[in-house]
Amino acid sequence: MRGARIGTLFAVGALLAGLLGTGGSAAGAGGPLGGTAGGTAGGGRGEALVHLAAGAPENAPENSPENAPGNAVANAVEADGCDTGASLPPKEQVGSRIRAIRERGYLVVGIDQSAYNWGYRDSQTGRIEGFDIDLAHAVAGSVLGDPDKVRLKAVATADRVALLQAPDRPVDMIARAMTITCDRLKQIAFSAPYFNVSQRVVAPKSAHAGTVDQALRGKDVCVAENSSSAAALDQDRHGARKVLTPENQLDCLVLMELGEAQATLSDSSLAYAMVAQDQTMQLVDGSFLPTYMGVGMNKQDTDLVAWVNQVLADWRNSGGWQASYDKWLRPTMGDPGPYRPW
Amino acid sequence: MAAQTQGSVLAPAPAGGPVAVPGGAGPVGRLSGPLARLRRAARTPPGRLRTAAAVLVALTLLFGVTAAWQSADRAAAARQLASRSEPLSQDAAELYRSLADADATAAAGFLMASAEPPEVHAQYQADLDTAARLIPQAAARSGSSAEAQRLLAELGRQLPRYAGLVESARAINREGLPLGGAYLRYASAYLQEEVLPNAQRLADAEAAALDGDYDAAAAVPWAALVLGVLLLGALGRYQVVLFRRTNRVFNPGLLTASAAVLTALVWTAAGTVAAGTGLHGARTQGIAPLRDLNRVRVEALRAHTAEVLDLVSRGATKKFEGEWQALAGTLADPAGGAGSVAGLLAAPPDRARQQLADARHWFEVWQQRHATAGQLGAGSAKDAYEQALGATLTPGRDDTARAAFDAAGQQWEQAARAEQAAFEAAAGGIDGALGVQAAAAGLLAALAVGGTVRGLGRRLAEYR
Hints:
The complex is a heterodimer.
Chain A: H1 2-20, E1 50-51, E2 86-87, H2 96-104, E3 107-111, E4 114-115, E5 119-121, E6 128-129, H3 131-144, E7 150-154, H4 160-165, E8 173-174, H5 182-185, E9 189-190, E10 195-204, H6 212-216, E11 220-222, H7 228-235, E12 242-244, H8 249-257, E13 263-267, H9 268-277, E14 281-283, E15 288-293, E16 296-297, H10 302-317, H11 320-333
Parallel strand pairs in A: 3-7, 3-8, 11-12, 11-13
Antiparallel strand pairs in A: 1-2, 4-5, 5-6, 8-16, 9-16, 10-13, 10-14, 10-15
Helix pairs in contact in A: 3-10
Chain B: H1 2-10, H2 12-30, H3 34-43, H4 45-112, H5 118-140, H6 146-173, H7 179-218, H8 222-246, H9 252-313, H10 319-331, H11 341-344, H12 353-378, H13 384-392, H14 401-427, H15 430-461
């Protein structure tokens, strides 16, 4: 009950701050995070809301010059007034959700098992690994004192929001290359951003597509069902002839290899994962709809949201984010600059 | 009907002859031409004899042809049943099973990852080889319907595509990329949604053809039997007439004809009963239990596929758990309803009783182990998934759910072989016996024609 009331308070606070806080108001990296990265000290202590991330995602990440760690810049405020970069201030305080997880003895994290380098099953070892999986282990280590006390549960792209809203909590959180959108913020809570993403098009090199429009116009385009890319394609089809929506973004790569689709629209994170698995594919120049990636949670679990934000801050400050990036993503994505949301 | 009319024409003619001739002579006598001459000739005593001989011979020939033709028809159907439609039906069921097993085995190999032992891939390969052998074999068997040929051609086109998708998945899996899993999903969906429905349609078509052949082989040759009885009656009746007219007790020719027709009639009736008994045995010991067994084996296979795919999905969907629940519910029905393991033992063929009982034991072990694996998966251990996976399938361990499923499957396979042998024992020879019966009916009818001609020829000679 108390948790719910606090949740409401925070939600109201978030709304207010979202409406007001357009001008780099709350560089929360300062106070509560311990600021080893030397973030800009902000006056955000009194606020119910902290912008961990402010990586100028309005620009295409590749083109944005200022990406130094801890660099708090403008927030991403979308047209309808929601702030996709906003979340609760980081805090390690035991609430009802944390207590329930500790009683259970393990953390249940919804993951993807087919997002190469993000959350995927190594088909040789049978183990689930990747950047998002490192994050799941980090949260388990922080909440339960053992990074292995985590149950990884595969969730379908289309089911993510419903699973987080379910009252019996089939999953505590979802770390699955999930894009923070205003639509989703109305239904679930997100952690602070931990990665910058935008929409990218993947197409066979043989298509010789120079621009997004060239790659999509008149083509059979593939997007994962209920993904942010599907929503983006709904708003603007870019002349696509037909839209295929399999359950999983990786199914799009199979369809392209088999010639059933000629292009795929995807988050940049997963677009790179596709190209990494098939050298005959390429990322088409040009990205759009820049936004963030966050950990999804239930709106009522404010203690967990704050806790995860603390883990993210620690992960970032201790170099854990960088280490995981270097291990999983640098070989395919290169310099991390454009992807750091701080 | 024709026989009846002829019989009734035949019977009163000699009896009413002396009365009818004077009364009818006037008006008919005025007519001229060949028809009238024929009628006049038929009214004379030798004419009546000739008419009777012609009618009796025609009736005997009709009986002989009908009996021989109907017996030969049943012999052909029995031969079709034993040599074509039953094997084709079994082949179609086997084809479906090998394809579904390939799917389950490929998924199991995927879950075992690099620990996949060579036997698992060998089993997948054997499944594909079986399918690749059965498709042209079924197509080559003469007499398949156009629909069956179309389905076989379609399956022959689909099989290499499926195999190619699985090989792509394997090659990519060897590099550790998740794309291999996506290929396997695609391959599995392709098999489930496009290939297996064709295999099912083929199995249904072959089962319908089998039923058709069975019904044709077991049909009672009513026309031949009715004709035979009428013919016997006519022969008997005419002998009585001749006896009254000539005071000769026996006409050896007609007596021979009667004996021949009686023999043919009894042979046909007895042969029909014998073939019916044999076919009934083939159905109760072979066709019906095989059909029930095929259904249970396919359901068990689909349940195992759902069990494995549920682990592959790692909880991403409840679909496979639901499929398992539905199939296991039917299979484990204690009341022995259709498609249940208990139902196979309700009235099992003797030859397969032991195998079916053993299979039931392993089926129950499988269900228990699946439940245990489910409890492990839902348990609180942090490696709950790995434990559930290990309890379901681990290469080299024989206490897993898959091992129990395999054991049950092997017993079912042996039971199917025993039932197949029972079918062959019961159905074998039926076509031969019916063939002999057809030939015998023909020969006996010829003998009867000879007897009739000879017997009435003697009487005719008395008028010269």
